[in-house]
Amino acid sequence: MLIAGVQPVMLVLGAVAAWGYLRRARRTPGGWPWSRSASFLLGILLVLALTCGPAGHRAEQLFWFWLSQSLALLLIAPLLLMGGQPLQLFSGTAETWWRDPRWARPRRAVASPVLGAGLVPLTCAALLFGPVPGWSIGVAGVGWITQLLLLGLGLVVAYPLIAIDDTLTSTALGLAVGIGLVELLLDAVPGIVMRLSTHPVTNFFDYRHPVAGQPSWLHDQQIAGATLWCVAELLDLPFLILIFRRWISADEREAVFIDASLPDPGGAEDSRPWFMSDPQLRDRFR
């Protein structure tokens, strides 16, 4: 997957992204919060640490390490990158295009947490029980594309969780919370299957690089299953917390809007009980 310990595609993209982000941040009127810059740069460093150097080599030798690398690219690094609010920083370019009315439907689809809640289990299933693991370490180009796709899908999942602009209704966010709770239970199934299976569930072991002290394929697969079983459950919790917080905020925002649209209770007519305005009931209470 790597050439002399370097993943060239991710290295170039990471350098360009960091340079462009810092350049734009310095030119932002009034300054740009250092915490957002730190979050974005930490995300870049994490991506490079996962895909280049010893971590990249180790992922070619151990299935559980490759799986952990993939989960980090999908679920952890994107949160740090989107925590830097890059779309808001480039508000004159990317955000303007993103909020074009012609892209309203795709924007609503991507901004919905329901999409992310459905993408994560489907992506994990493709990673674990298909030919992707073996191809990604056997063919360099496939490995680079796999890492880019994982990071891209992770950004789609992370965007609605961290985006500042919130146009989602409390109903949509409540549905996302429900799906997230179901997903929290279903995420354990692949890990349990891998942990208890006595035959290979992936072709990774046909391509992995042999090294001294390497565990057997069965032990390696069992460790991967236990890792997915435990770590994936823990990684779901921050997502649920973020969605739940946005659900509460959306409910409060809608409550303010509803209160503002109600009639002014200051008048005598409006302050009367509702049944006093009903022709069939008001005579009974005089």
TrEMBL record:
Main subcellular location: membrane
Pfam name, any one: Caa3_CtaG
Subcellular compartments: Cell membrane
Alphabetical UniProt keywords: Cell membrane, Membrane, Transmembrane, Transmembrane helix
Alphabetical list of InterPro entries matching this protein: Caa3_assmbl_CtaG-rel
Keyword Cell membrane assigned: yes
Protein name per the record: Cytochrome c oxidase assembly protein
